[in-house]
Amino acid sequence: MSNPQQLRYSKEHEWLSVAEDGVSTVGITEFAANALGDVVFAQLPEVGDTVTAGETCGELESTKSVSDLYAPVSGGITEINQDVVDDPSLVNTAPYEGGWLFKVRVTGEPDELLSADEYAAFSAGN
Is residue 106 helix, strand or coil? Predict the structure, then answer.
């Protein structure tokens, strides 16, 4: 399993892109997608919602379980990935590309975000 080096990661298994014009893209990691199993439903935050780093902002339901989705940063939701709402399996097949979940205009970022190597070490221990 390879974690893209340009992304940062939360201990809740979300990834975050480098902000472009203050907006970052958020998804779940391949590790989390594999642990969930086949994702069949995605409840994402709404455009215009405000999310807070470390707090729940949605859910992913798989054939195995329901898992909370956590915001890796604080900010306002600018876009959701309607493709994932329509076809949640994208989370499993392309977690770092077509399976992204939402975009957020970042207003606050916690210090706990991990590099790809740090996240690899963290997820190996879980």
Answer: strand
